[in-house]
Write a structure and sequence with these properties.
With 302 residues, the protein is an all-alpha fold. It has one domain. 75% of the residues lie in helices and 0% in strands. The protein has 13 helices and no strands. The chain starts with a helix and ends in a 19-residue tail after the last helix. It is a multi-pass membrane protein. Pfam families: EamA. It is found in: Membrane.
Amino acid sequence: MKKSDLAALLLLGAIWGASFLFMRMGADQFGGMALAGMRAIGAALCSLPLLLSRRRLAEMRTHWRPIAIVGLANSALPFVLFSYAAQSLPSGVSAISDAIAPLLVAASGWMWLGERLDATRASGLVIGLTGVVWLVAGTVGFEHGGGSTGWAMAACVGANVCYTFGAHYSQRRLRGVAPLSVATGSQVAAAVLLLPFTVWLWPAKMPGVQAWLAMLGLAAVCTSIAYVLFYRLMSRIGATKSMAVLYLIPVFGVLWGLVFLHEPVTVAMAGGCIIILLGVALTTGLVRFRFPGTKVAAANEG
């Protein structure tokens, strides 16, 4: 990997890690639904220049139904769920929870799609889910009222379930469609889907300047620019190496929460983050163990 590509990867991890900081900053004043809606609408507006491509418009017209479903699963619902969670959870905890998506993709592929799990990937699933239990047990409690941290963590898990469905669905229904066409069309679809709910649940008191800046950061930087950067990076270094960004998001999410919001880094957060990332590394094949009786070699051999 070239130094420029490594720098782009670090930048993307920092940007997506900052999305949890921005949601934490804006969720209380906008409310979860309005913030999610404005994020999708803002991202769709920022993506309008990409619609000037005739090929992209043709692809979106041809595949508008599956693209709309991906917009619902990969953008609209996760935006709402993570924004709701941001009203109760520290941004670092939400960022760590985002790392469970690859575990859910691997588990669902094994259970429902018949995808093979070798010993390394299976152990990664067990280790990663152990980290999730560690994180949940140390940070949440189901109290009375919708704003409890327990329900917020459930919303984070639900957002990752949506990502899992979106990953499998797009792989089956949108294979061969240009990634930027899917990204642009799905943001437009998410904006259309969330617009009526955004108007209906608009806060009675106008959000302050800080909340608006946080929303603009979410829409323009963490959504529109980040997607363009991600797909450009994939075209240069491939999808597998680009997925390394999943290991950077929790680290930057915790860092930004500590620096800008003075959120404490608890033992549960640190332990859960380390265990989950180890599980993800094993599940995705970044790290491999040698098991007795198998031909699985360590990643640093050969």
